C-alpha cells in the first residue's frame, strides 16, 4: 500500500482526498496496489471531515514517518510550501504539487533536489488545472523543436472576461463569482494582474526550451485595464479579448515571453475557449500545431491532475524518470520590444485625428460611443514603440495586441 500525506486541505487538497477516496478501487487496479491518505496537514480544524483522525498540524510527523512515500503539496505560495517541499524531498519522499508559484520560482532547484535524492517532483496540475500538458510537452512532443507555446492559462480571468462579454457583468461581480467557484488565488490580484499566467508560461517555457525562464524577466499585463467599451469594439470587429501567455522561440535562439490581453479573431479556436476553460497551443517543427483544452481551475479538475501524478509515482515506485531543465540566463529571454503585431487602439479624441496620426487603420464603431472617443485596428503590423510614437500627444485609453 502507498501512503500519501496531503499538505493544505483547501480547494485542491480536499479535491485530492475526495478523488483518492471515491476512485480508490480503479486507482488501486491501475497502480497495482492501494493508495491511501495517511495524514492531512492544515492549520485549521475540520471536525466534520470524513478524514477526522488523519489531520495533523506538525509537519515533522509526516517528515519523520517512513511509511509516507508521497507528499502532496497544495498549500500554495513560495514560503512555507518551499520549506515543506525541501524537507519532504530531503527525507526521501516524492512530492506532487499544484503550486505554480513554487514551480515557476523554485522548480529548477526542487527538480534537481528530487533527482539527487532519487525521488520525484511532479507538477502536472501547476499549468492548466486538469489539462494534461506537462507530460505531453515533455514526453509526447519530445521529438520536436518547440517553436511556440501560447495559451489561455488562467481560469479566473477567462471566466471574468466571458461573464463581462456574455452577461455584461461588471468586473467586480464576475471576479466575486470566480472566487465563489474556488478558481481564484487566495490573493486574486495574482490572477487579474497576470502574475499567475506569467508563472505558468514560465513553466511551459522551461520545459519547451530547456532553460530556466525567470518570471521576473517576463513582461506581464493583466485584464484590469479592459473596459466594456473595448469588449464592444472588439465584438464589432469580429474579435474577442483574451488574456494570453506566449513564449516564442526567436531566430537567434532567444525566447520572447510575455503575458498580455489580445484581440483574437472569432474564427480562431482560442476565441471559443470560454468560462473557466484554458487552452494551450504548442507549435512543434515536426508536429505543427497542437491544442490542449479543458478546465483550467477548480477542485476536481485540478485534483484529477494531482492524483494522476501520485499514481505515476506509485506505479514506478519513485523511479520515474525526472522532469527537469537547464540553468537560466537573462540574455536568453527577450520582452516584447521587437515583437511586431497589429494593434487595437482606443483614444480620447476624434476618429479623423486617429487616422491622421496612425495612417492605415480600420476604424471601429460601437453603440453608445461618445463623439470624443475613437477606436481602430492598425492595418500594418509594427512594434508597440513604433505605434506609441505615432500616437504621440494623444490620450491613449487602450492598446491591445491583435493575435496574428
Ligand atoms: P486554498 O487556499 O483553498 O487551500 C490552501 C490550504 O492550505 C488552506 O486550507 C489553508 O488554510 C492551508 N494552509 C495555509 N497555510 C498552511 C500551513 N502553513 N500549513 C498547513 N496548511 C496551510 O488554495 P487552493 O486549494 O485553491 O490552491 C492550492 C494551490 O494549488 C495553490 O498553489 C494554487 O495556486 C494551486 N492551484 C489552485 C487551483 C484552484 O482551482 N483553486 C487550480 C490549480 C492550482 P487557511 O485557509 O486556514 O489558510
Ligand atoms: N487561479 C488559477 C486560475 C488557478 O484561475 O487559473 C488554476 O491555476
Structure report:
The structure is a single chain. By secondary structure, this protein is α/β, with parallel strands linked by helices. The chain has three domains: 2-130 and 299-316, Rossmann fold (3-Layer(aba) Sandwich); 144-295, Dihydrodipicolinate Reductase, domain 2 (2-Layer Sandwich), CATH 3.30.360; 343-402. Helix content is 36%, strand content 25%. The chain has 14 helices and 16 strands. It has helices spanning 11-22, 24-31, 59-63, 80-90, 100-117, 134-140, 155-167, 171-180, 189-192, 195-209, 228-236, 299-316, 351-358, 384-390; strands spanning 2-7, 35-41, 55-56, 68-73, 94-97, 121-122, 146-152, 239-249, 255-265, 277-284, 288-295, 333-334, 342-348, 361-364, 373-378, 395-402. Strands 7, 8, 9, 10, 11, 12, 13, 14, 15 and 16 form a ten-stranded mixed beta sheet that branches. Helix 5 (100-117) runs parallel beside helix 10 (195-209) and helix 7 (155-167) packs across helix 8 (171-180). The protein is elongated and about 75 Å long. The structure holds NADPH dihydro-nicotinamide-adenine-dinucleotide phosphate and L-homoserine. Residues 7-13, 41-44, 74-76, 80, 98-100, 125, 129, 182-183, 185-186, 297-298, 302 line the site of NADPH dihydro-nicotinamide-adenine-dinucleotide phosphate.
Bound molecules: NADPH dihydro-nicotinamide-adenine-dinucleotide phosphate, L-homoserine
The run of helices and strands is: EHHEEHEHEHEHEHHHHHEEEEHEEHEEHE
First-to-last CA distance? 52 Å
CATH third-tier fold name of the largest domain: Dihydrodipicolinate Reductase, domain 2
Q: Determine the number of helices (DSSP H or I, runs of at least 4 residues).
A: 14
CATH homologous superfamily title of the largest domain: Dihydrodipicolinate Reductase, domain 2
The parts where pLDDT drops under 50 for at least 5 residues are none
Strand content: 15-25%
Amino acid at each position: 500500500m502507498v501512503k500519501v500525506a496531503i499538505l493544505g486541505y483547501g480547494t485542491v487538497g480536499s479535491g485530492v482526498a475526495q478523488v483518492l477516496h471515491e476512485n480508490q478501487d480503479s486507482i488501486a487496479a491501475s497502480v497495482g496496489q492501494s493508495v491511501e491518505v495517511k495524514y492531512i496537514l492544515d492549520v485549521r480544524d475540520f471536525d466534520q471531515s470524513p478524514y477526522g483522525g488523519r489531520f495533523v498540524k506538525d509537519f515533522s510527523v509526516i517528515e519523520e514517518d517512513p511509511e509516507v512515500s508521497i507528499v502532496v503539496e497544495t498549500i500554495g505560495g513560495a514560503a512555507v510550501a518551499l520549506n515543506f517541499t525541501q524537507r519532504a524531498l530531503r527525507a526521501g519522499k516524492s512530492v506532487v504539487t499544484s503550486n505554480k508559484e513554487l514551480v515557476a520560482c523554485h522548480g529548477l532547484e526542487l527538480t534537481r533536489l528530487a533527482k539527487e535524492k532519487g525521488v520525484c517532483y511532479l507538477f502536472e496540475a501547476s499549468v492548466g488545472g486538469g489539462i494534461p500538458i506537462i507530460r505531453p510537452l515533455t514526453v509526447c512532443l519530445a521529438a520536436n523543436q518547440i517553436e511556440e507555446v501560447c495559451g489561455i492559462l488562467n481560469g479566473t480571468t477567462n471566466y471574468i472576461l466571458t461573464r463581462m462579454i456574455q452577461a455584461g457583468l461588471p468586473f467586480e461581480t464576475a471576479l466575486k463569482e470566480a472566487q465563489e467557484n474556488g478558481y481564484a488565488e487566495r490573493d486574486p490580484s495574482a490572477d487579474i494582474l497576470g502574475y499567475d499566467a506569467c508563472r505558468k508560461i514560465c513553466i511551459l517555457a522551461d520545459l519547451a526550451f530547456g532553460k530556466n525562464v525567470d518570471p521576473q524577466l517576463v513582461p506581464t499585463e493583466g485584464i484590469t485595464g479592459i473596459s466594456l467599451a473595448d469588449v464592444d469594439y472588439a465584438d464589432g470587429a469580429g474579435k474577442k479579448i483574451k488574456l494570453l501567455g506566449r513564449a516564442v522561440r526567436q531566430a537567434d535562439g532567444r525566447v520572447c515571453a510575455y503575458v498580455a490581453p489580445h484581440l483574437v479573431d472569432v474564427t480562431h479556436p482560442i476565441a471559443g475557449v470560454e468560462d473557466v476553460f484554458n487552452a494551450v497551443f504548442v507549435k512543434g517543427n515536426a508536429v505543427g500545431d497542437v491544442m490542449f483544452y479543458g478546465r483550467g481551475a477548480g477542485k476536481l479538475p485540478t485534483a484529477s491532475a494531482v492524483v494522476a501524478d501520485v499514481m505515476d509515482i506509485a506505479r514506478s515506485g519513485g523511479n520515474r524518470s525526472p522532469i527537469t531543465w537547464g540553468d537560466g540566463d537573462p540574455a536568453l529571454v527577450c520582452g516584447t520590444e521587437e515583437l511586431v503585431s497589429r494593434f487595437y487602439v482606443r483614444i480620447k479624441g476624434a476618429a479623423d485625428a486617429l487616422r491622421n496620426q496612425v495612417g492605415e487603420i480600420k476604424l471601429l464603431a460601437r453603440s453608445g460611443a461618445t463623439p470624443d472617443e475613437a477606436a481602430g485596428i492598425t492595418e500594418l503590423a509594427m512594434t508597440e514603440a513604433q505605434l506609441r510614437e505615432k500616437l504621440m500627444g494623444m490620450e491613449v485609453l487602450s492598446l491591445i495586441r491583435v493575435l496574428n
